[in-house]
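Handout, section B. The chain below has 250 residues.
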Amino acid sequence: MASFVLLLCQVLIQQVTLPGLHAHNDYLHKRPLMEAVEQGFDSVEADVFLKKDKLLVGHFDFSLSEDRTLASLYLVPLSNLHKQGRLKSMWLMVDIKSGDGLGTAKAIEAELLRFPELFQRVGDKDQKPVKVLLSGNMPRQWVLEQKQPLLRLDGRIGDLGFPGKADVIPWVSEPWNKHFSWKGTGPMPEDQRIRLESMGKKAALAGQQLRFWGAPDLPECWKIQRQAGVQRIGTDKLEALAKTIQKRGK
C-alpha cells in the first residue's frame, strides 16, 4: 500500500504544471515534447527549416531528417495529449531558421490550421490549450498586420514594457551576455542584479514574459532569475530545473 501511494504521488508531481519553465532546443532530447510535459514544463522550443514544402526540425541544415517534422514531433503529439485530456496549457516556440521567414511562417500557419481545436488565436474567446510563438527569422510585419493572428511574436529589447504589444508580442527574449557578465558562480554584482529586476518588472507591468537565452544553465542562475521576477526560465537540463523549482515551491 505504501509503495502504491508513493507511486501515485510521483505521478501527480509529474503532472503538475510549473509555469515559466521553457525547454530550450527541446527536440534534442530523446523524447521531444514528452519529457518536458512529464517534468511540468509549459513551453517547448523547436528550430524549423522549410525544405521542399516540409517543416523539418533541427538546429543545423545538415542535421535535418525527413521524418523529424514539426507535425510528427509536436503537432500530432500535442493533439493526442489534448484528446487524452492530458494537456492544460502550453507554449510552442517555433524558431525559424529558414532564409525565407515569411514562406516558413505561412507554412507553419497552414499546418496549425489542421488542428483547429488545439491552437489559440490572439483575441480568441474560446480557450484553446496551445499558443504558438515565432522566433528567429520571423516576419514581424506580416504578423502585426493580421487582425487575429494565429502566430505570436517573440519580442526583443525594444518591445519590452509596452502594454499594447502584450497580446501579439507576449514574450521578450534576450541574450544573457548582452546585459550581464555574471557567469552563475559567486554573488551577482549588485548593479547587474538591479538591472535584472528592472527588466523583470517592466515585463510584468506590460503583461509580458521575459526570457534569456544563453544564461548560465546552473541552479544559482535559475534562483537569481526567479528572485528577480524573470517570468520564464529556459534550460537544457529539464529534470534538474524541475526539481529545483519543485523544491523551492515546497
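Note. The longest helix spans residues 190-205. Compare this with the example in section A.
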